[in-house]
From TrEMBL:
PROSITE patterns in the record: ATP_GRASP, BC, CPSASE_1, CPSASE_2
InterPro entries registered for this protein in UniProt: Acetyl_CoA_COase_biotin_COase (IPR004549), ATP-grasp (IPR011761), BC-like_N (IPR005481), Biotin_carboxylase_complex (IPR050856), Biotin_carboxylation_dom (IPR011764), Biotin_COase_C (IPR005482), CPAse_ATP-bd (IPR005479), PreATP-grasp_dom_sf (IPR016185)
Magnesium recorded as keyword: yes
Organism: Algoriphagus hitonicola
Keywords: ATP-binding, Biotin, Ligase, Magnesium, Nucleotide-binding
GO molecular function: ATP binding; ligase activity; metal ion binding
Residue span(s) of domain ATP-grasp: 122-319
Protein name, as recorded: Propionyl-CoA carboxylase alpha chain
Record has Ligase as a keyword: yes
Residues covered by the Biotin carboxylation domain: 3-448
Biological process, per Gene Ontology: malonyl-CoA biosynthetic process
Origin: domain of life: Bacteria
Length: 499
């Protein structure tokens, strides 16, 4: 069995660092790659060796598969971990890695290929009795036929790019009148973003939750599920808060979804870590959406509740080792929440807000994990995904995990850029979230920039009031004997009110 001795991480930022940490614990040497914009990044400093790929744009650096493979040969690297994004779901890269005699930490190129196309994926799983969103299983070629299909399904419908990803390439069609226009837009978007104009129709589930299942499979054909992650708090069809377990999933539903996910994995002879995404309607019917053939951004919440290190599992599987546990050995313990800290301005439609991290102080204390890839004083480059960190918490119960996350957000100090932290605090404290009764429309339904403004000005008001009282007390200090004894109590009471 091949033992991996030197691993190249073909990625940047928090995920590169997170992967290297597991490698380090396993006694595996690490090689970082970086673009000129990331020269001073923590992932570069952390690695045993680091090599520059080129200028900042991804297509001149992190997407240069051939160059990465050449570096591997030069440096005697035996395995590549692609992380998420970039080359992680690129079947031809995975194939070239394999042909070069290097281990690709992920599934087979064939599995990546099938699951990379939403249509091919639907086709592949059709034999496995997996519930699917009503819609078309083929790309639209005939508009009249697609329209009749849409009428059959009932509006609103969703036009989706088969090659879509990252929440891009989707168009909602409310009525037949706008079908053609939306379809043309969807095709041209799909062509420019993914180089593939194939689109299809799905029923638009109006009050959906996004719940996904983590799977792990070894090369011997054993596949297990590591339960669900609730990912319904999204903006632009992209997740911002995730948790495990989900507040609405019952043991029966968990088992049914878990087994369906294993079926999806079997359909493509999957090995490695993967995620099967489902959409769940108000009646808790679940439908297969897609499979992501890589480590997921939100994988830490699963690590927290299962006690498994998913990166170590990926590495062991890639080496050809069998899983050391079976389905019945896995248990959910406690509750975990992740909030994604994006350099975005929630008050300005969540638009990227890059700049310098003038202050950057991480929260600490019990049950807190921060996965990030920046240090204070660094610039957030404009070239890549604007996620700067993931704040993950763990506690015994859901409410305790929520309270702990809010506490950690209060401790997190970031200045110089706008972030999603304030929005996340708002969401975590919202009744819809705490009660568990929410769907992917949370942002549209409950969030408006004013809720952050109001919070701020209410806070400021109290701060001014507190300062005024303090000033008043100070001026009386000489006259009042016991001020010293009273003030600590008072000031902490004010502090609590300010929160
Ligand atoms: P996850 O699916 O792991 O929950 P995201 O949807 O945020 O997380 O995607 C993970 C990363 O991959 C992000 O950096 C995102 O921009 C990128 N990504 C996902 N799909 C694609 C794609 N098809 N093309 C380019 N980037 C993608
Ligand atoms: P991507 O590859 O971009 O991640 P997905 O198919 O996973 O595409 O969908 C991304 C998000 O879009 C989902 O998490 C969900 O919020 C929304 N979505 C996708 N399909 C539907 C649908 N049929 N009805 C309602 N919302 C959907
Ligand atoms: Mg998805």
């Amino acid at each position: 069995m091949p033992k991996i001795k030197k691993l190249l991480v073909a990625n940047r930022g928090e995920i590169a660092l997170r992967i290297m940490r597991s490698a380090q614990e396993m006694g595996i040497k690490t090689v970082a790659v970086y673009s000129e914009a990331d020269r001073l990044s923590p992932h570069v400093k952390y690695a045993d060796e680091a090599i520059c790929l080129g200028p900042p744009p991804s297509n001149q650096s992190y997407l240069l598969g051939e160059k990465i493979i050449k570096f591997c040969k030069d440096l005697g690297v035996d395995a590549i971990h692609p992380g998420y994004g970039f080359l992680s779901e690129n079947a031809s890269f995975a194939r070239k890695v394999k042909e070069a005699g290097i281990i690709f930490i992920g599934p087979s190129p064939e599995a990546i290929e099938v699951m990379g196309s939403k249509l091919a994926a639907k086709q592949a799983v059709s034999k496995y009795d997996i519930p699917m969103v009503p819609g078309m299983e083929k790309a639209i070629t005939d508009i009249a036929f697609a329209k009749s299909k849409a009428a059959e399904i009932g509006y609103p419908i969703l036009i989706k790019a088969s090659a879509g990803g990252g929440g891009k390439g989707m168009r909602i069609v409310e009525s037949e009148g706008e079908f053609e226009e939306q379809m043309q837009r969807a095709v041209s978007e799909a062509e420019s973003a993914f180089g593939d104009g194939a689109v299809f129709i799905e029923k638009f589930i109006t009050s959906p939750r996004h719940i996904e299942i983590q799977v792990l499979g070894d090369q011997q054909g054993n596949i297990v599920y590591l339960f669900e992650r609730e990912c319904s708090i999204q903006r632009r069809h992209q997740k911002v808060i995730e948790e495990a377990p989900s507040a609405v999933v019952t043991p029966e539903l968990r088992k049914a979804m878990g087994e369906a996910a294993v079926g999806v994995a079997k359909a493509c002879d999957y090995h490695g870590a993967g995620t099967v995404e489902f959409i769940v309607d108000e009646k808790l019917n679940f439908y297969f959406l897609e499979m992501n053939t890589r480590l997921q951004v939100e994988h830490p919440v699963t690590e927290m509740i299962t006690g498994k290190d998913l990166v170590k599992e990926q590495i062991k599987i890639a080496e050809g080792q069998s899983l050391t546990f079976a389905q019945e050995d896995l248990r959910i313990q406690g509750h975990s929440v992740e909030v994604r800290v994006y350099a975005e301005d929630p008050k300005n439609n969540f638009l990227p807000d890059i700049g310098k991290l003038s202050t950057y102080v991480r929260p600490q204390g019990p049950g807190i994990r921060v996965d990030d890839g920046f240090e204070e004083g660094m610039d957030i480059p404009i070239y890549y995904d604007p996620m700067i960190a993931k704040l993950i918490t763990y506690a015994e119960t859901r409410q305790e995990a929520i309270d702990r996350t809010v506490r950690a957000i209060d401790e997190y100090q970031i200045t110089g850029i706008q972030t999603t932290l304030g929005f996340c605090k708002f969401a975590l404290q919202h009744e819809a979230f705490t009660s568990g009764q929410f769907d992917t429309k949370f942002v549209e339904r409950y969030f408006e920039p004013a809720v952050l403004e109001e919070k701020l000005s209410a806070g400021e008001e109290e701060l001014f009031a507190a300062l005024a009282v303090e000033f008043f007390q100070k001026s009386k200090k000489e006259a009042v004997q016991n001020t010293m004894a009273q003030s600590p109590v008072k000031s902490s009471a004010w502090k609590n009110r300010l929160k």
